[in-house]
Write a structure and sequence with these properties.
Layout (H helix, E strand, L loop, with lengths): L7 E4 L5 H12 L3 E5 L13 H12 L3 E5 L6 H15 L4 E3 L15 H31 L6 E6 L2 H5 L5 H21 L4 E9 L10 H4 L15 H7 L10 E5 L2 E5 L16 H14 L10
Parallel strand pairs: 1-2, 1-4, 2-3, 4-5, 5-6, 6-7
Antiparallel strand pairs: 7-8
Helix pairs in contact: 1-2, 1-8, 3-4, 4-6
Length: 299
C-alpha cells in the first residue's frame, strides 16, 4: 500500500521535468493522477499533449491510473475544466500540485512588459485559477457535510525566496507564490485544506541552461539534481499524512530544510514622529542588529 492510495491528484506542468517525476511518484504511491500539460516550449509557445500522454502511458504500463489534461492553467475556464475532469473521471479531488511554469529571462533594463506579463500569467494566474476552482469544490463538500481532507502543494523557487539576477519577473512571481501559500493556509484551514510549498533545486528545462555546470548529470554516483529527488517530499505533502500547513520547504538532492521567511526585526521607537535628519543613524543601528540577508543568486 502507498501513502496516497485512492487519492485523486492533479499535477500541472506534468509532461516533463519535476512535474513528470511528481506524477510517476504519486502513481507509485497509489494515487489516481491527472497529468496536466499544454506541451508548450520553455517560453510558453505551442501546444502538444504528447509529453503528458507519454507520462500517462508510463503510469498505466506500471499498473496505475492516469489521464491526460491539456488545458491552459492560466485560463479561468480551462482550469475549471481540469478540476471537473478529475472529479468526473475519478469521483473526486484530493490533492492539487501547482508546478507549471515558464521563463523569460532578461536583465531588468532589457525586459519587455510582454516578458513580464507572460511569466506572471503562467506562474501566478496559472496557480490561482486551478486553486480557486479546487477550493470551490472542497468548500461545497464541506458545506454539504462531506469530510474534506485536501492538500495543495505550490512551487516557488530559491529565486522567489532570495532573488536571482536576470530573473526579476520569475523571482517576483515565485515570491508571490510563496506568500499566496501562507495566506491560503491561514484562510482555508477551517475547511481542512492544507497548503504548503516547495523551493526545489533540480534539473529541468528552466535550470539546465541557466545553471549548466550545477545541473550537469554526474558520470557516476548520486545524481543530486535528478528531479525525482524532489518528488518524495511533494508526495508526502500531498498525502493525508501531512498535517502541517503554511510552510515552505527547500529541497535539493537528499537535503530538506524549512525556509524561514520575512520576520519582524528589531524596533526603534521614539514615541513620537521621527524627523528626517534622525532616520539615518537609526536605520544604521537597525541594519547592524539585523541578520545579514542571503545573497541574491548570481550577484
Amino acid at each position: 500500500m502507498g501513502i496516497c492510495d485512492g487519492r485523486v491528484v492533479i499535477i500541472t506542468g506534468a509532461g516533463r521535468g519535476l512535474g513528470r517525476a511528481h506524477a510517476l511518484a504519486f502513481a507509485a504511491e497509489g494515487a489516481k493522477v491527472v497529468v496536466n500539460d499544454v506541451g508548450a516550449s520553455l517560453t510558453g509557445e505551442g501546444h502538444d499533449e504528447g509529453p503528458a500522454a507519454e507520462v500517462v502511458a508510463e503510469i498505466r504500463a506500471a499498473g496505475g491510473e492516469a489521464i491526460v489534461n491539456g488545458d491552459d492553467v492560466s485560463d479561468w475556464d480551462g482550469a475549471g475544466r481540469m478540476i471537473r475532469q478529475a472529479i468526473d473521471t475519478f469521483g473526486g479531488l484530493d490533492t492539487l500540485v501547482c508546478n507549471a511554469g515558464i521563463v523569460r529571462d532578461r536583465m531588468i533594463v532589457n525586459m519587455s512588459v510582454d516578458e513580464w506579463d507572460a511569466v506572471m500569467r503562467v506562474h501566478l494566474r496559472g496557480m490561482f485559477c486551478p486553486v480557486r476552482h479546487a477550493i470551490d469544490h472542497w468548500r461545497a463538500m464541506s458545506k454539504a457535510g462531506t469530510p474534506v481532507d485536501a492538500r495543495v502543494v505550490t512551487t516557488s523557487s530559491g529565486a522567489g525566496l532570495f532573488g536571482s539576477v536576470s530573473q526579476a519577473n520569475y523571482s517576483a512571481a515565485k515570491a508571490g507564490i510563496a506568500t499566496f501559500t501562507i495566506v491560503g493556509a491561514a484562510e482555508l484551514g477551517r475547511y481542512n485544506i492544507k497548503l504548503n510549498g516547495i523551493a526545489p533545486s533540480a534539473r529541468s528545462r528552466m535550470t539546465e541552461e541557466a545553471f549548466a555546470e550545477m545541473m550537469k548529470k554526474p558520470e557516476s554516483g548520486f545524481d543530486a539534481m535528478d528531479p525525482a529527488n524532489v518528488s518524495p517530499l511533494v508526495v508526502w505533502l500531498g498525502s493525508s499524512q501531512c498535517e502541517i500547513s503554511g510552510r515552505m520547504f527547500e529541497i535539493a538532492g537528499g537535503q530538506i530544510s524549512v525556509a524561514d521567511g520575512w520576520q519582524h526585526g528589531h524596533v526603534f521607537d521614539k514615541g513620537a514622529r521621527l524627523e528626517p535628519h534622525e532616520v539615518g543613524s537609526i536605520v544604521a543601528d537597525l541594519v547592524r542588529e539585523a541578520p545579514v540577508p542571503a545573497l541574491v543568486y548570481g550577484a
